[in-house]
Amino acid sequence: MVVVVGGGTAGITVAARLRKAGVEDITVIDPAGTHHYQPLWTLVGGGRAPLHKSARPQASVMPKGVNWVRRAAAGVEPEAHEVRLDDGTTIGYDRLVVCPGIQLDWHKIPGLTESLSGRVSSNYAAELAPKTWELIKSTRRGTAVFAMPAGPIKCAGAPQKICYLAADYWRRQGARVATHLVLPTPGLFGVKEFADVLAGVVRRYGITTHFASEVTEVRADAVVINGQTLPCTMAHLVPPQSAPDWIKASTLAGASGYVEVDRHTLRHVKYPDIFALGDAAATPNSKTGAAIRKQAPVVVANLLASMRGEQLTARYNGYASCPLTTAKRRVVLAEFDYDLRPTPSLPVNTAKERLDMWYLKRYGLPFFYWNLMLRGLA
Ligand SMILES: Cc1cc2nc3c(=O)[nH]c(=O)nc-3n(C[C@H](O)[C@H](O)[C@H](O)COP(=O)(O)OP(=O)(O)OC[C@H]3O[C@@H](n4cnc5c(N)ncnc54)[C@H](O)[C@@H]3O)c2cc1C
């Protein structure tokens, strides 16, 4: 039996591909009744898409013939080949795929949780994304802060994307909002080609950047950045993130707390019957759904090879992509690998702001996700 922990982007894609490959005995463990297409939350927060388009019942995306256990995994016993559930029961496996996503650590920034009932929002929670748009619309003057926390997060571009959508909206409305972008990184993007384009975007909107900086506390009508208090009218903040606590506490975790798999084969470095992918894996790629699109076929090919007792030959090269929304109808599509080398997959120059990439992000990719990727067809 193949057991998959987590029925998000990675879990459903892998389960669908395993079914297509003829594997009959598959169990997906996931307590959530709703499946989310999280990349749309940026557009919801920017007033460019309705929230309901990002969610479908989990039952509707679960591949036919897969046994769905609606519980949370609480531990893995690799020696016993068992997953422990939150009700104390266990499920045995021959091969295990671990992909429960990343944990949002809201509590790690003092004042953040409390501030979410005021003029602070975050596209990192489905229910808050519409509020981001309400805040953007109702802000006409004052100071707005958009910040990214230190450490790995899912879609590291998302904290910037919403900043540019807001700045573009305010410019069109003639609103005078001093906009601050706070990033823990030394620059706007790790790949020079895309960093240069984003530098132009920042100049166009007159955004004040704070590099190597982070919000360390949220107070009433102010945020603290590197020990300095910056009063603000609204803020879009992103919670620090880490591996799920139960993974951190397990023997599956490496030093980072994430599931320690080989970065190319995606097989666990200590337990040959365990694979991991997606946000919970310790691979040093950008944590995105786009990465999972390339990881899932590798996991499935290598898992099947391991069942046949063959060498693992499929390799993941660290591919990730990030559609950076820079204006109401403009997107820069950044595609790159482990070496931060641009790896374009389309026959056009996507390292500039494009209308066609906007349509790809708004309509093409959601269609691709629901109809092809989650069905194991692409
Ligand atoms: C605002 C935002 C914008 C983004 N934009 C983009 C983008 O433009 N492009 C892009 O490619 N990616 C983007 N992403 C990132 C992308 O959504 C994630 O990288 C992707 O969903 C990760 O897939 P996953 O399967 O690892 O985790 P998830 O899709 O988060 O799924 C994890 C699943 O595991 C389940 N689970 C959790 N704990 C347990 C447990 N203990 N036991 C069993 N099941 C459990 C959950 O219920 C969930 O169903 C964005 C994310 C956000 C938040």
Please describe what this structure looks like.
This protein has 378 residues and is α/β, with parallel strands linked by helices. It has two domains: 2-102 and 243-317, FAD/NAD(P)-binding domain, CATH 3.50.50.60; 108-240, 3-Layer(bba) Sandwich (FAD/NAD(P)-binding domain), CATH 3.50.50.60. It is 28% helix and 24% strand. The chain is built from ten helices and 22 strands. It has helices spanning 9-20, 40-45, 58-61, 112-115, 129-138, 158-173, 192-205, 245-248, 289-307, 355-371, and strands at residues 2-5, 26-29, 34-36, 55-57, 67-69, 73-77, 82-85, 90-92, 95-98, 103-104, 120-121, 141-147, 176-182, 208-210, 215-219, 222-225, 228-231, 234-236, 241-242, 274-276, 320-327, 330-336. The strands form seven sheets. A five-stranded parallel beta sheet has the order 5-2-1-9-20, with helices on one face. Strands 11-18-12-13-14 form a five-stranded parallel beta sheet, with helices on one face. Strands 6-7-8 form a three-stranded antiparallel beta sheet, with no helix packed on it. A hairpin with a 2-residue loop joins strand 21 (320-327) and strand 22 (330-336). Flavin-adenine dinucleotide is lined by residues 5-11, 29-30, 32, 38-39, 41-42, 72-73, 99-101, 123-124, 154-155, 158, 244, 278-280, 287-290, 292, 323. Residues 5-11, 29-30, 32, 38-39, 41-42, 72-73, 99-101, 123-124, 154-155, 158, 244, 278-280, 287-290, 292, 323 line the site of flavin-adenine dinucleotide.
**Radius of gyration computed on alpha carbons:** 21 Å
**CATH architecture grouping of the largest domain:** 3-Layer(bba) Sandwich
Strand order in the sheet with the most strands: 5-2-1-9-20
Class from secondary-structure proportions: alpha/beta
The oligomeric status of these chains comes to single chain
Distinct small molecules: flavin-adenine dinucleotide
Shape: globular
- Highest CATH level, the class of the largest domain: Alpha Beta
Strands, count: 22
Helix content: 25-40%
Q: What summary fits the major beta sheet?
A: 5 strands, parallel
What would the CATH topology of the largest domain be?
Answer: FAD/NAD(P)-binding domain
- How much beta, percentage-wise? 15-25%
Total of helices: 10
The total tally of domains equals: 2
Low-pLDDT runs: none
